[in-house]
């Protein structure tokens, strides 16, 4: 019977281990999987768009395991009391096609997105980076901040959001954990002196959250919120000056900041940097941009990490999801005998 | 919190209502949804193939609800004690993207496949049809037989399978329900005098389960097992003589019997017959073929029917799958307070 980690157990699991440790653990799994990138079956995610949002399925597999995530994106949700993004995911055994593991992934996605951003920055940000600017104080913001401390030791964050309450919420959550938080008066104020700039906003429009004039040589840009057709955050001129690193080009060209560029716009695949096949940051003056949209392999890694971590613990339950009659050709027998599958 | 119908409750639900009544109920929902076919977001299913099987995701949506099914197909599974096909599915609210309902679908898929076959035959088989030949006595066979009795009153079945135990299993399950079963010695013997021929075998190869010479004028062919690239059941010459009805042409051209034909091979979309936009059977001599592969809208219909049927009953549980903090921008709060979401 497949294992299950529901929301309650996900909360307990995170509370038990702590966000920072789990992001670091998931990051190590993502790095392992990015190194063997070529062994995965990869497609752009399958999106169903409506005027107010998108629902997506993100499958991938290697020769042993299959994973997919269900995830929505509805920018108008918080104003109505809902999460912008909710998600759940499943692992399955490629050998017999049976699902083996199901988990909530609203929280797990926040952990894996932070882990991926932090992994990219480990290879792309200047080694002497000390200060991160964050534009956007929504659901992902605390996870991003803790991910960057775990991977790079960043303990100073300058944050800006158009919603002052969201900034206060960020400070309330993060300051007690020992990170110095500066509430900025504007984007300009936030990026002042920052070595790393993370943009993570939810508005579904071609915005210019970050203006060209604010990007100085040597900065690393972590562009998280430009992740959907028609949803970008950066002044397109920034892309011309930066070296742009992406996850899976066929998906990022549809969804990322580079959707505003031609199809042959030059990018570097992040996995090649992780695998040592392509250099990361070339100089202290280079502007690097991780044009993050989120790719299925990261969810595959996160689900594997969670599964391995909760195996045999109190954080795991079971879900009776696979009909399994004694005679595999006699599925019908289940309709006449009410058997307990346990 | 999303509703859940797990295997145990699916068995209890079917046992409570009976297979035949549920197939008829699901058929009525499929007919409703086929009539409004054009209002659905449709794509061919998303398949991940390996040497021993396939794992697929089948999404579709209208303007209110989104559905997807996870389903595998592993022909070598029964010999190893596993089901060839297992499945589960989810409904979600298009408005906010939240999942609302999850169910096991191994059994539900058997019900909906039979409902779809029976629906097609209601429009395509001769009205005086009395006898069905069935080639293949696997997991789907009893459901097909009961579906045809529910929709057309067929109560005589001539069955053949290369596995005598599977045929005996079929007789053991079906005869007590009042259907006359003849165990045939060969495919030729099975189709003798049959008005309807159902082929439903699991072997993943371009087989000729049914030879050209065995198909007489006026017969309706219900081709269920040719449903995957490289997996067909019919002598390709049969398709030249028959009028071929399909679900979603872009998917059937990849997966159905017509994969052995050119891309412009003429087919009729079944929904147009149901909606009264195209005639069904034209004469008593016509050979009609429903080249069934299974399409996402049928799962959408089956999930809706199940959801409506179990609402407020003992057959429904809940699954804690959507993280929902009080402040939608404060997802992080769930990591520090272990709240019961109930």
Would you kindly provide a written description of the structure presented here, covering whatever features stand out?
The structure is a homodimer of 342-residue chains. Chain A is of the alpha/beta class and 342 residues long. Chain A has 2 domains: 3-107 and 297-326, ornithine cyclodeaminase, domain 1; 126-294, NAD(P)-binding Rossmann-like Domain (Rossmann fold, 3-Layer(aba) Sandwich), CATH 3.40.50.720. In chain A, 33% of the residues lie in helices and 24% in strands. Chain A is built from 11 helices and 18 strands. In chain A, the strands form 3 sheets. In chain A, strands 1, 2, 3, 4, 5, 6, 7 and 18 form an 8-stranded mixed beta sheet that branches. In chain A, strands 10-9-8-11-13-17-15-16 form an 8-stranded parallel beta sheet. A two-stranded parallel ribbon of chain A has the order 12-14. In chain A, helix 2 (19-35) packs across helix 4 (141-152), helix 2 (19-35) packs across helix 10 and helix 3 packs across helix 4. The longest helix of chain A is centred in the middle third of the chain and has 19 residues, at 106-124. The relative contact order of chain A is 0.18. The mean pLDDT of chain A is 94. Chains A and B meet through helix 1, strand 3, strand 4, strand 5 and strand 6 of A and helix 1, strand 3, strand 4, strand 5 and strand 6 of B. Chains A, B: One of its GO terms (molecular function) is ornithine cyclodeaminase activity. Chains A, B: This is Ornithine cyclodeaminase. Chains A, B: It is an enzyme of class 4 (lyase). Chains A, B: Keywords: Lyase.
């Amino acid at each position: 019977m497949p294992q299950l980690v529901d929301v309650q157990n996900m909360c307990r699991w995170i509370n038990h281990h702590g966000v920072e440790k789990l992001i670091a653990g998931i990051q190590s799994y993502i790095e392992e999987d990015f190194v063997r990138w070529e062994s995965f079956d990869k497609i752009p995610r399958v999106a169903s768009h409506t005027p107010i949002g998108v629902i997506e399925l993100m499958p991938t597999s290697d020769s042993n395991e299959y994973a997919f995530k269900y995830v929505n994106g509805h920018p108008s949700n918080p104003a109505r009391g809902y999460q912008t993004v909710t998600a759940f995911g499943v692992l399955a055994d490629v050998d017999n096609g049976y699902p083996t593991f199901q988990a909530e992934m609203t929280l797990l996605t926040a952990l894996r997105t932070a882990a991926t951003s932090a992994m990219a920055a480990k290879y792309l940000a200047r080694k002497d980076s000390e200060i991160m600017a964050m534009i956007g104080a929504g659901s992902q913001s605390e996870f991003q901040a803790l991910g960057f401390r775990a991977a790079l030791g960043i303990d100073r964050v300058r944050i800006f959001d158009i919603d002052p309450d969201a900034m206060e919420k960020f400070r309330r959550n993060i300051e007690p954990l020992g990170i110095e938080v500066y509430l900025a008066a504007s984007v300009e104020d936030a990026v002042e002196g920052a070595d790393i700039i993370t943009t993570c906003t939810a508005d579904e429009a071609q915005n210019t959250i970050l203006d060209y004039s604010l990007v100085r040589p040597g900065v690393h840009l972590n562009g998280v919120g430009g992740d959907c057709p028609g949803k970008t955050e950066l002044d397109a001129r920034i892309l011309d000056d930066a070296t742009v690193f992406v996850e899976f080009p066929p998906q990022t060209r549809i969804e990322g900041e580079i959707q505003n560029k031609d199809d042959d716009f030059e990018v570097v695949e992040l996995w090649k940097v992780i695998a040592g096949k392509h250099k990361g940051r070339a100089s202290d003056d280079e502007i690097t941009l991780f044009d993050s949209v989120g790719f299925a392999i990261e969810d595959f890694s996160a689900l594997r990490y969670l599964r391995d971590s909760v195996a045999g613990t109190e954080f795991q339950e079971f879900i009776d999801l696979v009909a399994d009659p004694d005679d595999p050709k006699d599925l019908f027998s289940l309709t006449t005998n009410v058997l307990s599958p346990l």
